[in-house]
Amino acid sequence: MEIDKRCYQNRELSWLQFNERVLREADCTDVPLCERLNFASIFQSNLDEFFMVRGGALFARSQVSENICDNKTDMTVKEQISAVFEKARQLLAEFDRVYSGIMLALREYGVEIIDFSNLSDEDARFTERYFDREIKPLLSPQIIGKRHPFPFLKNKEIYAVVSIDSKNSDDKMGIVPCGAGVFERLIPLPSGENRFMLVEELILHFAEKIFERFKIKGKSLIRVIRSADIDIDDEMAARGEDYREELEAVLKKRKKLAPILIELSRKIGASTMKTLHKHLRLSEKQTFFSSAPSDLSFAKNLCDALRDKPELFFEKRTPQKSVRIDENRSMISQIKERDILLSYPYESIKPFLRLLREAAEDEGVVSVKITLYRVAKYSQVVQALIDAAENGKEVVVVVELQARFDEENNIGWSRRLENAGCRIIYGLGGFKVHSKLCLITKKENNKIEYISQIGTGNYNENTAAQYTDFSLMTSFVEIGVEVGRIFNEIAMGQTAEGLTHLLTAPKNLRSGIIALIDQEIRAADRGGEAYIGIKINSLTDKKIIDKLIEASRAGVKVELIVRGICCLVPEIEGMTENIKIISIVGRFLEHSRVYIFGVRERIKVYISSADLMTRNTQRRVETAAPVYDESLRAQICGMFSAMLRDGVKARRKNADGIYENPVGGGPNSQEYFCNLAYRGELTDIKD
Q: What distance lies between CA 576 and its chain's CA centroid?
């Protein structure tokens, strides 16, 4: 089947489109002002991570060959890098405008980040005294020269750079670290309770006092973004030592990887720019200018100063009790009676935490097995597992240390679990364990019973109040047996296959999904009603994309809710005209993964840990679980349909690959689900 190239979109550009949708929320006047500032901060940190990970990967490929092509759009690496930088430059210009508008609006509430152009005389005197007494004694300036080599610039840290007049043709350059972890970032000014100056601006302004023997011609704040793209398995394979200790060593190496870009707050002399480019091995196209602060991590402090003004924030929402659960009865006994589904953050994670604590205390429980990817810093999940081990249960924890940017946290709590007597398994070589599985095995009256929990999100109490996810708890024996097989295969260094109920990557998730799509194609070919509905974070797997295009051409109705990267372009006549794609970006991070196939009596519903990306289907251990309970299926399908009707936060992707403003006629789906949960009606929602 020949497919029109217009049906595909480049992965990197699609991700930048997603971050553009985040920026739209920061620019949306219907969003409360402090929440807009938070979205701006998320946009900025997202962009940093994109360049660290994806930018790093692109540049690594370009070192091999600039002619390596994207398997969907045929763009070469060189073309992708060029397009990424062009789009990022546009987004940063838009970000500057949005940030400026937010800060202007915050002035009405007495909150300001002041620069030296509008300081009062009182504030000017204060800042100079503050610099002389509190800042200058702690600074470590450096002039770059033969005896003073160019220093290592840490990833994402802010430096003040000055161009110094020199007798030679080339100007000298001075660099001052602006003190991550040394200084308070926000300096309160005496002229108002919530008027602040950023410490880096203070340092830059008084650069003449730092380099007092020199004539300064120009100055700017700079920040370098370094690649974080490092193949941890390859790095450690040659060493063959303790996995956890080797990972710690590799993480130190990551901090010193090559620069990807440099960001400046102001124009600076050509000679100084040339010096920066030379030592950082960066080009003009890798140089960005932004008038907004290069690190908005201070946004939380500003918002905290305004907590007494509720109109500046989203209405407070807390996860609610599930009406399916009797708090006066044990979780195990209730799950044995019927399957239970929790929908975060509309419903609370507490019932699952209670299940773990019960398992730790229940004399009949023999073992608790769980996969952990990202957990809260002070994790109740980890504490329950420790309690279970100390109570003599067999506790097996599959720890994925390679959860990107959470590795150090994972190393710490894995030691706690090991010290408590838990058996730790560090995943599989070459495959990240991304499945969200928990298996409680109980022996009662000489009979083995299983309580299985399969989720779409991490075992993290904090993110369960911020991310949308599903958590299924079941006593269905056959599923318990298959979950047990997955744990046993991992323990033996293998991946599971040949399962009847669960779809698992890397062996049969992709093939299982393709088989389910083929069923709908056959139904359409017979003239029947055929349907596919999928909710995921990202869609990049070309084989699945091509199969969805085939389904569309066969007349199957395909509806996709894809929050982030989406390499499929819908609504192209003769190709994808039966495919509808929306993205929802709102106060909660859409994180649940749902696969729906068929209609009425043929309907099959799965919840999963897996996005439909090649890395998930081929290079990770993932699980998709069927939802057999009819009422639970109805709830999931009802929520899916409500999201498709969202007329407030949903953006519909068109045939040009552009995301249009909301087109549905329904309410904000996230607020709608909150209201249903508060009324105890979320479980009653129907398609």
A: 28
